Queue: 2 jobs
Job 1
Amino acid sequence: MTKIAQLVQTIQDKQADAIWVSNPINIFYLTGFKSEPHERLFALLITKEGQQTLFVPQLDVEEVKASPYDGDIIGYLDTENPYAKYDAKFDTLLIEESHLTVQRYNELQTAFGVQSFNSIDLTLKQLRNVKTSDEITAMRQAAQLADKCVEIGTAFLKVGVTEREVVNHIENEIKKHGVSEMSFDTMVLFGDHAAAPHGTPGERKLQNDEYVLFDLGVIYDYYCSDITRTVAFGNPSKEAHNIYHIVKQAEQTAIEAIKPGVPLSELDRIARGIIEEAGYGEYFPHRLGHGLGLEAHEYQDVSHTNHNLLEAGMVITIEPGIYVPNVAGVRIEDDILVTENGYESLSNAPK
Ligand code: MN
Ligand code: MN
């Protein structure tokens, strides 16, 4: 069944009349047309009969026609009311409650006489959760480019270089490999600075015998990677070294448990168990990982509260960490595809 056919089925199952998709990433996922509309109205309407209509600013119409999307198009000028160009009434409309603004909600109510709204969020998340082979091909490439970024960054390390300089160097160099955008702000943190799991790279200078944490990813053919490597520059302290090996073991053991049918919560339990056993449980303050795809963080959580089962085609991150103030911050993160029989690590930078 195509994605649109599955959504039409959902409209019928929920006894609704139509779906109004407003998140540009979901619109791209469903149409193959990508746009950042800013404050302008941009939405895909799918009726229970399966009719698709894309509302776009007039200035985007030619690009829509050149895209894979083949449904109806309503282009509007900045001075026009886009809703007035579509004559319909919907009693029940499915919307993305995590995205639609209150302003748009009110506009839809007025324009289409909507009596009740219902959420389509979970259905869209579930659709995006399992990747097609084309999506996996893009994600494999995105992960390999992230590996390359770590290699570039590691080779640039020297005493006195700043975190910000390493970030700039990585981002400039990876552009020569066809990357135009990182999937989030590149993170390079030195020594004790890495003990803040979401620190900001700055003017901190690299010294001998400390760890360097790289957390980065690229967007390749619309798909994101997100990996972390922590590398030793010289010989960090014995405790820092010990922490590194605990994190590495926690990550490896959790990854090896990945196969269809295993609860996501089980992966978190395995990694957390190893870290707790070693006495560092309180220094691992975040979930084990998250879904990855068109967005760097997407459905679903790899946490102890998510008991959903792994399915072939899902891509998740596994990223345990231990952050001890004034000692060390270590995180290791890989992008893992769930396969029919187990897993494939899309990222392969050395550990
Ligand atoms: Mn990351
Ligand atoms: Mn991550």
Note: The radius of gyration is 23 Å.
Job 2
Amino acid sequence: MNEDVFRKIHKVIIAGSGPAGLTAAIYAARADLEPILLEGQQPGGQLTITTEVENFPGFSDAIMGPELVDSMRRQAERFGTAILPRDIVSVDLSERPFRLKLDGGQTLRTHTLIVATGARARLLGIPSERALMGHGVSACATCDGFFFRGKKVLVVGGGDSAVEEANFLTKFASSVTIVHRRDALRASKIMQAHAQENPKIDFMWNSTITEFLGVEEKKLRAVKVQDTVTGEVREEACDGVFIAIGHVPNTGFLGGQLKLDPSGNIIVNDPRTETSVEGVFAAGDVADKIYRQAITAAGTGCRAAIDVERYLSHKKEEITRLEQEFAAQTM
Ligand code: NAP
């Protein structure tokens, strides 16, 4: 890596390399902001763990998630984005320029920051779950439901997401069973009513999945289910399992310096992408608990880059002064 990146103040640094971060990079690079993009721990984000993406406009024959994100990456690089295979460990947003400490120990300085670090689906964390992700196990019904036409699927969870995903999946699946660890749903009454009225949905109460079967064949064929009251374990044949037990926004590195809502998402001044700290913007799933789609993430990434460009042009004098002070200190 060229060490010069640590000896200057950047106009914009983008944290995260999913569709939000990469779209922000494409727009920022084309606006001559010379963006630096930090890839983070999962380069490409959640798209890299999906298979075919059939709902991203412009790809009438579908495209594989990793291929889509790779194409965005090349597009961002073509306009001059510097993509660093690094992660941010901590930030100091209390002074200007902002300081970002990286996993290698070095510090980057920047006038603005776009946080596009996404969210990760909360998973059960049991053996075989990772191995069968994309091979029968999924955390996104909107992305993968279509592949389960005429199949038997299970949905894990008892909140609005689980019920919404179950309802959505009945468009394709022959039967949908909601597997919940208690005997009552957490979902809102109206969502529960929809699920209870749907003849394709049934419920498996007081149950948790303890193992996914089919790892050797690389195709899910059944699960082991434990009764949380009796402790009894049995096998349940199925073609697909959708985990819908919530999402976890990736905000740990911010150390509480940006305001978050009760679900842990960064609060933005919607429809703008400004956060509670001037000069810091957020885009994609890290600031979205409703839509969480690749296309909506890309859209907010575009908005964040445009917001940064306008912010920098309003702050021209302050930025010139900061750069002069920094040059004097480092001479
Ligand atoms: P949630 O409300 O936090 O529900 C998570 C569910 O997963 C709970 O039923 C929980 O069980 C279960 N769970 C958590 N960890 C588990 C584990 N390790 N093993 C088994 N089960 C586990 O999350 P959500 O459903 O994603 O909803 C998040 C927010 O988005 C909520 O505010 C919701 O209202 C909102 N939302 C709204 C809509 C809508 O209005 N259309 C749609 C989706 C989401 P317990 O019940 O036992 O805790």
Note: The first helix runs from residue 19 to 30.
